[in-house]
Amino acid sequence: MISQFFVLSQRGDNIVFRDYRGEVQKGTAEIFFRKVKFWKEDGHEEAPPVFNLDGVNYFHVKVAGLLFVATTRVNVSPSLVLELLQRIARVIKDYLGILNEESLRKNFVLVYELLDEVIDFGYVQTTSTEVLKSYVFNEPIVVDAARLQPLNPAAIFMQGSKRMPGTAVTKSVVATEPGGRSREEIFVDIIEKISVTFSSSGYILTSEIDGTIQMKSYLSGNPEIRLALNEDLNIGRSGGRSLYDYRSSTGSGAVILDDCNFHESVRLDNFEVDRTLNLVPPDGEFPVMNYRMTQEFKPPFRINTLIEEAGTLKAEVILKISAEFPSSITANTILVQMPLPKYTTRATFELESGVIGQTADFKEVNKRLEWGIKKIVGGSELTLRAKLTFSQESHGNITKESGPVSMTFTIPMYNVSRLQVKYLQIAKKFSAYNPYRWVRYVTQANSYVARI
Amino acid sequence: MSGHDSKYFSTTKKGEIPELKEELNSQYKDKRKDAVKKVIAAMTVGKDVSSLFTDVVNCMQTENLELKKLVYLYLINYAKSQPDLAILAVNTFVKDSQDPNPLIRALAVRTMGCIRVDKITEYLCDPLQRCLKDDDPYVRKTAAICVAKLYDINAELVEDRGFLESLKDLLSDNNPMVVANAVAALAEIQESSSRPIFEVTSNTLTKLLTALNECTEWGQVFILDALSKYKAADAREAENIVERVTPRLQHANCAVVLSAVKMILQQMELITSTDVVRNLCKKMAPPLVTLLSAEPEIQYVALRNINLIVQRRPTILAHEIKVFFCKYNDPIYVKMEKLEIMIKLASDRNIDQVLLEFKEYATEVDVDFVRKAVRAIGRCAIKLERAAERCISVLLELIKIKVNYVVQEAIIVIKDIFRRYPNTYESIIATLCESLDTLDEPEAKASMIWIIGEYAERIDNADELLESFLESFPEEPPQVQLQLLTATVKLFLKKPTEGPQQMIQVVLNNATVETDNPDLRDRAYIYWRLLSTDPEAAKDVVLAEKPVITDDSNQLDASLLDELLANIATLSSVYHKPPEAFVTRVKTATQRSEDEEYPDGSETPYSESPAHPADGGVSSPPPTSSAASYAGVRQSTPAPAVPAAPVPDLLGDLMGMDNSAIVLVDQPSTPAGPPLPVLLPASTGQGLQISAQLVRLDGQIFYSLLFENNSQIPLDGFMIQFNKNTFGLAAAGPLQVPQLQPGASATTLLPMALFQNVSAGPPNSLLQVAVKNSQQPVWYFNDKISLQVLFTEDGRMERGNFLETWRSLPDSNEVSKDFQGIVVNSVEATIDRLAASNMFFIAKRKHANQDVFYFSAKLPRGIPILIELATVVGTPGVKCAIKTPNPEMAPVFFEAIETLLKA
């Protein structure tokens, strides 16, 4: 069990503080913040999520720029505490619509009320927004989403906003709409984070998909839902796979998941038969299913890097990005980064003309090349030329001292695994009942790296 | 609702408290609710709003749950400091616990359990009894946890009232949430009790396994953790258990997965069928790997656990090494753990791929990660004989890039590779020697020198290379000096020519006469003697064959690994330390109570003093200011060791162990001045002597302690506890005493808090202290609370105020005492001395031949003491009379004034 829970802002201000057992001294928030801020132990510069200081164990996770922290004196399950911290953040977000310092401060009474129901004497009671609704009475005060800076540029919903009602995902699950009644709608997001490592010759060394089917329901009366996935979905790789066994079956064939797990509300009675999931979605946001896949897939981007030495103190880097997905799809917020040799003093760039929304920059501090592209349409190709100047001779080691090239991007309405929600059935309450259903696909880069 | 809660944080300029008071007593419900919110807001930011206690409690009787909850939140925080007022709330609590609304019943019990005030606890029993049998599961599950709360306050009460039995009954409850909480409560109670209270029998096992399927995710973790202590009777039972638990591996909650893994691993030990075991390993692998798709924080925990699991069962993840390859955006703490596991999983089959990864990591930006990657290559070379050559060629490639720290790290690991495979890879020495002059880290230098010495006969210019280091011998760090010494001796033994002979003279001279490092000196003398008596014997010793080192990547000791594996999915498995090494849960009421208050904005004494040691001297120094105390410590630190004489200087060595060196620098130190009174003599304390005294520094009470270890063993793990006493003095922080070696001593200032657990009965000055450490029994001793330590700095009264207070107190509140033997010689000195203890001089008058002095002082909580001293200066005999609202304090006060006047 935990002793204390608190939320700190990035500056270390105490936004929420709750002591459940009074067995840990006060002032831990300050002690914690100082320790984490100036962490320098075992040579690491970033504090691990769990550490012990003077007999007190500190756990923390970072959510939306805030530090969610718990302390304890006893030998608890660390995954429980860390998972709990994430869930608390999620519950608060469900209630407040938006999770940030301002919304927490505005709603501190509600947050305390939630915390009292979520944890008793340090023991988790529930983190289900659905269940909490019957015990929590404060109404959230909704913070105006439009005024807010996007907290996290990677937040997947930013991009989709043109297709979706803009307020949907920042809408509180419990607050009543200004008009007094809320819209019947349900969101199902298939989010895939992909990791690919290309060798210097362009082969795929490792590739992996971490996927989630995320649901957020605003349906009244909790109707039962049926979610159908690809019928040819397979789970578990057959037998032990050798490290060198690269399947060439790209493009066709069944979707094979290495592993998957499900939210506790999901009933799997028909899953083995027809790959459908039955559930009564609780209020709030939750993952219906998480899955992992190492089956080979077609990477959405190819990265080509060419380094040419031009004399002893100069070199030219040519980066080429090819978008290998259909032209009906557009990737956005693309950022390509490449560490350059430490003795690089200057870099000048040559961008392709006619492409708008491109920026290229040399970050002097960490000697890094950054190339930002707003949009890339499927099937197109972009090139960046960078001329580098060095302060010392490179001894022919440039390729060893620069790279790898890494890339982040978001591709809405596209998923590489080909896992699909074939249909989403909502049990009808009456004949005219036809709530909005939003099924969205998003592919994001997790660790997308090309070695050079 | 309109408006924003954040408006409650805004402060009105003056009279905030009176304003709130008015609003709290408003006739309008909404206004009262708003006011309570403001109070809570003030409490959160650390303001003291305890004076509004009665007004807030008056809002408690409401049907509005939102308001009620707020009031309860306030109560939990302030009941401790206002125990007498808290009792006002008891009736409402008891009434609420019988409310028709189950939420209110549960709320009442939940809150009462959080208020650690004895008088309230007494009233908790009946409602708790009822709620444990309530019709509503929400009430029962709350009551279950409340039993654990009560046990923490008063274990006897729980046992006497039969709550443990009720709790055990709840294990069969039809609501899984209730079962889960009962399990959690019983597990906690068991943890703090030495008697068996909660033992999982096969009967409970069946019950709990059934409940497992219906529980919430968190309840599943409670149950799985409780069941993991269960020892199955045989392989069959173990298999049955595993079968019931395996579906939990599919859960989306990582905590459930890890707890299930723990349970399965535990039962696997009993399962004999290799097929079953293999099958289980196969089932566990995918969920374990999936944990690495969670948030990085969870990944870290998973990786630390996997590290342990693959040490016991390497086959589980043997084919999954790819998932441990580092992602470029992994946090550094994840990358480091992944590297460890990659080394553990590296095999002849996958080494090429692994090396490719390591090589890539070794050119990344993060220096620590790069070093670890280089080291990993070396460890693989040592682990996998057949791959050693490939590893070395990768290392050589890296050396050729000439990145300084990569080269140095590579040389360090190559030294180990030479030791693992002697006489195999010496051909690369030439390449290493090229980087000789770029080495600036001691470990790398020492490794290189070792290599030169070891292979002196094969390096043509070994003597030149070593000589280049000799010039700077005196400036080198000890580990380099030691290696230089040995390497030179090796060189001389292998090539006893003129050059090396001269070198050995220089080195031996430097290492004996010119050094003050005892290790170096001793080693040099041994070599010297060996060389001068029997060079052949020297060869046998120095050039003897070395034991071959082995791979250290599975370095955990088998018994420790066992213990850690039993603790999978706990903090133990993250720290890789057994629980007793870091769990410091102190079962003391004192420890806890002082923390219960809300942060009041004032810094704890610790957080300030270590950072600004000199501040004490600047801000209004009391007679024993911290500045003085620091000076005092400095005097007692030993002078730096004197340059060593030619003869090994025993005294010098002893100085290095001087006990005062152990005093923690970042601790407020003991004030200089008279030595502390010995309270636990060494003869009683099996060699441990404790001297202590209460002192007041900068308005804060400290317990100044001196620990002296005269026993034969090191003592550590010191803890302190105070019995109930008149003033409720208790430790306000943990006792910070480092490990004490035999003969060493340490001083510390323990911050103290007042009114934590006040003893009943007439006031007395007795302070009973218990001190324990990890090696000895608990020691008890008595100390005296001298009242002057408690007098607050704001005790000075205006003359008019003094007179008025004196008059307003009834005569029955006046107590006087004669001190026959005491002489006041100097009025000045006496006044100063009393002022130093916060007893302030008000006025003086003549009465007959006597001088009559008036002083004021104030005890915490604002209790004034008005003092009248009558004496003839220079003549024995002082009459002291005091008037105070609390005349029962008089005897304690007279003890204090007697000490002060005598001094």
> Regarding quaternary structure, how should these chains be classified?
heterodimer
Shape of chain B: flat
User: What strand line-up does the widest sheet of chain A have?
Assistant: 13-16-9-8-26-24-19-22-21
Alpha-beta content class of chain A: mainly beta
State the separation between the terminal residues of chain B, measured CA to CA: 66 Å
- Major pleated sheet of chain A: 9 strands, mixed
- For the secondary structure, the number of strands of chain B is 13
Radius of gyration of chain B: 36 Å
Strand content of chain B: 5-15%
The chain pair with the largest interface is: A-B, 100 and 116 residues
Please provide a written account of the structure:
The complex is a heterodimer of chains A (452) and B (903). Chain A contains eight helices and 26 strands. In chain A, a hairpin with a 2-residue loop joins strand 3 and strand 4. Chain A is mostly beta strands. About 8% of the residues of chain A have low confidence. About 10% of the residues of chain B have low confidence. Chain B is flat. Chain B is an alpha+beta fold. Helix content of chain B is 50%, strand content 11%. Chain B is built from 40 helices and 13 strands.
In short:
The complex is a heterodimer of chains A (452) and B (903). By secondary structure, chain A is mainly beta. Chain A has helices spanning 28-37, 78-96, 101-106, 108-118, 129-132, 157-160, 271-274, 398-401, and strands at 4-8, 14-19, 50-53, 56-63, 66-72, 119-120, 123-124, 185-198, 204-217, 225-229, 234-235, 256-257, 259-262, 266-267, 276-279, 284-293, 301-309, 314-323, 330-339, 344-351, 358-363, 368-377, 381-390, 405-412, 421-426, 436-450.
